[in-house]
């Protein structure tokens, strides 16, 4: 053994984050996989995942091709809890753990080609696409399935329907009165029953009070249009205007008031709307001949209240409407709404819904009316990128709405006058490649995946800026499958306050590696292949993924997985929980030395051992392999799952569970005369469920070795 007087001991290295850089400080690892930072500042191996739907004895639910997952609380006070998934061509909702009724009874189909609340084929394939997009509103959830059509839907906890109207009704037909408003003809020419009361439609001529009670009404012309209204208050585009309805000039016979000459009119051919329509708004011009205007006005309803008060026809059945509304009652101008084609992205900001990446215009964003999440007014669309670049993501921040193309970041803010919005370029060369990677950290920092790595938007006002936060792992991120980077997905763990983003690495078609960022540095994990991820919006704050996980001794299975939890009925596939140091040297930089002893600080967790592999001189070849116990062998603790309740230990003392104790162990290694060396500490139990281990830190001893040869004894 070398003389201990010549040994140099390094500082304790509390390795917590990783970096792909070549030269690193000793307390930064070159790779940390499947470890998480505990509340006490140690690194612990992850456990789980667990299937969210347990095995009740009749197997687990079956899934096909997971594309999305989302949790929300709906209704006043959030009393309605919903968990939504896109499973292949279906949108499904979780109905609760129904033990004894079959595993697939826990999910109800909201949207599916057959046997669902709304029949539609949202489409599913393995092409690179955005994950299913979800966005919570005060009264429901906007859903944009991951598929070819990208048609948006809205779910309020009871009803699922397309969001808004993609087309407008046809124009109505106007029927002229036969006499004094008492009778009119329908479109077949048949006489329709009379109408009690006096007519009020028409224009009294200015010279109608010439002598006595004689008078006349002037020739009048009217046009009408129709607008649909759905049960959430969304409006369709206006129909085209009807043909002109003419009321001929009529003179009195010399007896009676001139008002007796005014008419009733009747509008027919009013189109019922698609499912979800609860009313039709009839819009009519004032007398176009005498007013000189073709402007439309809403014909008010007579009895309906609430948002139906503007609906003259508060149903979706009637096709005719008797119109007896005088021109001076027509005050409200209808909203000039645009029929909306399918779009891929949606978010909330400024009290409005913002749709983007339209089928006919990928570079357009369009705000909805406040509170009407599927109603978009004409001439309010915005093109942030004057070159028409495709919008690839949106995110609300303190100052406004971030809008991304693949290579540019914009911000949308309110106009100075308070009406409308304006945009400016926040960064001309940094963009976003994956809309589902955009998430906000607890401190308000927005983080997302761009072409060159992960970025963050920090600050506010004039100090708002964009910066890269992944320089330390930039060499690793070069291995992202760029063709499928758009399907990356992320969430923020509430307990760990950590951003997690799953990406497709090294040619993978699925998001097979999760990159974790805690505001200081990065680690990685590989327990699931997540097509999408969400955090439950309740006291549990579970992180749920939709995708693939592998059972011990089995194959990868599609499902809904609860991260960082484990159950006995489903053992995950063994995986390596590993810490790899950087290339190390202590006090002999520029000289050769011989590492002799490694000191490892753990907390007792299980009865297994960790493997320590040593590499030297920048080479990946493993030179030496050693093991270290995961507990202090001189004072063996009781192990979970092995010790009996009320039992005794080796000394005959009663077993009392205590908080896991720290301990240290030493491992002797032999790497003679090396320039640098690296250690890889791994726990992997082949064929069984991997145990747990808790890493505190490490240090090492080395002795000077001035030999200058590059090789070493074999």
Please describe what this structure looks like:
This protein has two helices and 52 strands.
> What percentage of residues falls in helices of 4 or more residues?
under 10%
Tell me the radius of gyration: 35 Å
**Gross geometry:** elongated
What structural category characterises the helix and strand content? mainly beta
Percentage of residues in DSSP E strands: 35-45%
Uncertain segments of ≥5 residues (pLDDT<50)? 178-194
Largest sheet: 6 strands, antiparallel
The beta-strand count equals 52
Average pLDDT, rounded to a whole number, is 86
Structural key phrases:
714 residues; mainly beta; 6-stranded antiparallel beta sheet; 5-stranded antiparallel beta sheet; 1% helix
Short description:
By secondary structure, the protein is an all-beta fold. It contains 2 helices and 52 strands.
What is the topology?
Elements: E1 8-9, E2 31-33, E3 35-37, E4 43-45, E5 50-51, E6 66-74, E7 80-87, E8 90-94, E9 107-112, E10 118-119, E11 133-137, E12 140-144, E13 153-155, E14 160-162, E15 173-175, E16 177-179, E17 183-184, E18 203-204, E19 216-218, E20 220-222, E21 224-230, E22 245-247, E23 250-251, E24 265-268, E25 277-285, H1 288-291, E26 296-298, E27 321-323, E28 343-349, E29 352-358, E30 361-367, E31 393-397, E32 400-404, E33 409-414, E34 421-427, E35 439-440, E36 446-449, E37 454-458, E38 465-468, H2 474-477, E39 489-493, E40 498-503, E41 513-517, E42 522-525, E43 529-535, E44 543-550, E45 556-562, E46 577-580, E47 593-603, E48 609-616, E49 624-629, E50 662-668, E51 677-683, E52 694-704
Parallel strand pairs: 9-10
Antiparallel strand pairs: 1-52, 2-46, 3-4, 4-52, 5-45, 6-7, 7-8, 8-9, 11-12, 12-13, 13-14, 15-24, 16-17, 18-19, 19-23, 20-22, 21-25, 24-27, 25-26, 28-29, 29-30, 31-32, 32-33, 33-34, 35-36, 36-37, 37-38, 39-40, 40-41, 41-42, 43-44, 44-45, 46-51, 47-50, 47-52, 48-49, 48-51
């Amino acid at each position: 053994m070398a003389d201990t007087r010549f040994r140099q001991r390094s500082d304790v290295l509390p390795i917590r984050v990783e970096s792909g850089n070549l030269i690193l400080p000793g307390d930064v690892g070159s790779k940390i996989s499947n470890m998480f930072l505990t509340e006490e500042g140690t690194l612990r191996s992850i456990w789980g995942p667990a299937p969210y739907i347990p095995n009740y004895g009749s197997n687990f639910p079956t899934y096909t091709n997971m594309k999305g997952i989302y949790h929300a609380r709906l209704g006043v006070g959030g009393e309605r809890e919903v968990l939504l998934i896109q499973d292949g061509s279906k949108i499904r909702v979780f109905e609760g753990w129904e033990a004894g009724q079959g595993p697939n009874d826990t999910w109800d189909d909201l949207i599916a080609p057959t046997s669902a609340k709304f029949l539609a084929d949202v489409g599913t394939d393995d092409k690179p696409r955005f994950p299913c997009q979800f966005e919570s509103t005060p009264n429901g959830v906007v859903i944009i399935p991951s598929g070819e059509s990208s048609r948006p839907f809205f779910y309020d906890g009871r009803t699922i329907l397309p969001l808004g109207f993609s087309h407008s009704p046809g124009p109505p037909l106007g029927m002229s009165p036969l006499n004094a408003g008492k009778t009119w003809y329908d479109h077949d020419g048949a006489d329709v029953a009379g109408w009690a009361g006096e007519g009020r439609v028409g224009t009294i001529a200015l010279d109608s009070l010439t002598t006595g009670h004689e008078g006349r009404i002037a020739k009048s012309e009217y046009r009408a249009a129709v607008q649909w209204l759905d049960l959430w208050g969304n409006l369709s585009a206006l129909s085209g205007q009807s043909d002109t309805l003419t009321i001929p000039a009529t003179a009195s016979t010399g007896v009676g008031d001139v008002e007796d000459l005014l008419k009733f009119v009747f509008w027919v051919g009013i189109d019922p709307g698609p499912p979800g329509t609860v009313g039709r708004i009839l819009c009519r011009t004032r007398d176009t001949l005498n007013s000189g205007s073709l402007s439309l006005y809403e014909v008010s309803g007579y009895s309906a209240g609430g948002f139906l008060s503007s609906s003259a026809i508060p149903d979706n059945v009637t096709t005719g409407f008797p119109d007896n509304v005088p021109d001076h009652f027509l005050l409200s101008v209808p909203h000039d709404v645009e029929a909306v084609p399918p779009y891929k992205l949606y978010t909330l900001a400024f009290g409005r819904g913002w749709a983007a990446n339209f089928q006919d215009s990928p570079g357009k964003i369009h705000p909805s009316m406040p509170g009407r999440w599927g109603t978009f007014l004409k001439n309010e669309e915005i093109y942030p990128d004057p070159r028409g670049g495709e919008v690839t993501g949106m995110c609300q921040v303190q100052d406004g709405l971030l809008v991304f193309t693949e290579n540019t970041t914009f911000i949308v803010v309110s106009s100075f006058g308070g009406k409308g919005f304006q945009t400016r370029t926040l960064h001309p060369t940094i963009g976003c490649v994956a809309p589902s990677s955009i998430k906000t950290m607890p401190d308000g920092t927005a983080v997302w995946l761009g072409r060159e790595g992960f970025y963050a938007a920090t600050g506010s006002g004039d100090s708002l800026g964009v910066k890269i936060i992944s320089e330390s792992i930039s060499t690793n991120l070069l291995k992202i499958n760029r063709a499928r980077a758009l399907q990356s997905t992320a969430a923020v763990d509430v307990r760990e306050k950590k951003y997690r983003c799953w990406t497709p690495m090294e040619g993978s078609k699925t998001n097979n590696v999760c990159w974790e960022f805690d505001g200081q540095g990065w680690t990685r994990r590989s327990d699931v292949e997540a097509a999408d991820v969400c955090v439950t919006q309740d006291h549990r704050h579970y992180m749920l993924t939709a995708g693939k996980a592998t059972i011990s001794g089995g194959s990868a299975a599609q499902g809904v997985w609860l991260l960082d939890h484990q159950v006995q009925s489903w053992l995950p596939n063994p995986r390596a929980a590993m810490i790899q140091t950087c290339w190390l040297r202590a006090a002999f930089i520029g000289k050769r030395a011989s590492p002799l002893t490694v000191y490892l600080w753990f907390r007792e967790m299980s009865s297994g051992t960790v493997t320590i592999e040593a590499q030297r001189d920048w080479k990946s070849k493993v030179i030496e392999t050693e093991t270290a116990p995961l507990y202090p062998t001189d004072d063996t603790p009781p192990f979970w799952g092995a010790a009996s309740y009320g039992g005794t230990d080796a000394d005959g003392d009663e077993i009392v569970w205590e908080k896991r104790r720290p301990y240290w162990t030493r491992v002797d290694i032999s790497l003679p005369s090396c320039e640098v060396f690296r250690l890889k500490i791994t726990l992997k139990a082949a064929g069984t469920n991997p145990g747990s281990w808790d890493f505190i830190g490490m240090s090492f001893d080395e002795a000077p070795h001035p030999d200058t040869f590059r090789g070493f004894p074999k």
